[in-house]
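Sample entry (370 residues):
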Amino acid sequence: MMNVLHVMGRMAAGGTEHQLLGMLESAHRRHWEATLCVLSSGWELSERVRSAGVPVIELDGLRKTDPRRALALRRLARSFDLVHASLPGASAFARIVASGHRRPAFVVSERGAGDDRVALGLVSRLLQPMTDAFIGNSEAVIDFLRRTSGLDPTDSRLAVIPNGLDGAVFHPARRWLPSHDNSKRMVAVGRLVSGKRFDRAISLLPTLSDEFDIELTIVGDGPERRRLESLAKGKRVSFVGHVSDRDSLAEILRGSDVLLMPSASEGYPNAVIEALACGIPVVASDIPGNQAVGGAGVSLVGDSDDKWSAAVRVALARGPVAAADVADRILTFDEVARRHLSVFEAAMTRRHHRSALGRFGPAPNSGFEL
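Predicted structure, serialized as tokens:
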């Protein structure tokens, strides 16, 4: 069985970290032998990974600039068949310190396509020849990887694997009863940063309150919280902070009538598939990442307050989303693990091919189907 080292900079309770946790819970000792290396310590989800039986190694206690930190990761990485690193910082660090003739196969996962990642483009271009596979969670992310890493559109190292979901947690209410009053609840979920554009969600309340007894719940925390709270003064907005427990988040979603996702950029938004799995309709910005989960239950809207108000009204009138209408857009974590295994096996083949030829560049086209 393949030995895989998964590298993360941190294991905060964010979307990427929850996706890795869910996959490792399904994959460990069934599809591959997993070990998690975290470049810092004290994270809640690291303990959750340990509870799943996955060994966790934390390279803490050393400054980022301390060469012993790099040497520790180099020695560790070279004892594995393959290194799978998520997000730009951790993936760049892992590839740099563990490079060389005896390096393991490298697989990089990217989860977003925002402007905050563009600065890493030069590093990505320099490191892409030593990368055996790239995984994005949507075509939008793959397009971003092509642009920033200088990859050919036909490069067989590129693979799309959408996010997974735990259907035991995110599911519709056992019994839906239609509301006989005019009270409605909108919900927005995500980190409170400018790119999430939660100010748009707040701005919708005055136009909708003429027709509905409506309120907005914002789930998440971040640097924009104080500004958003100021914008929300006098309006029916509740800030509940970050909710790390997935069962609690699912309960909030099931208690809502529509999810708002007004982001400027997304990779493959967890909140959208989680809401759909709970039967909650979604109104989202018309951007590539949201388009990846478009279809029944999702209204994609351009940059106009009037269009947003109209789309929310339609979503509220239609009510819950049928499970059958969204099933084809939601993967189990076991299926996510199986698709990763296909990519890992192809990456190992490429790495062995390079070693046999004694060359550094990409192996000949040896694509794989997912």
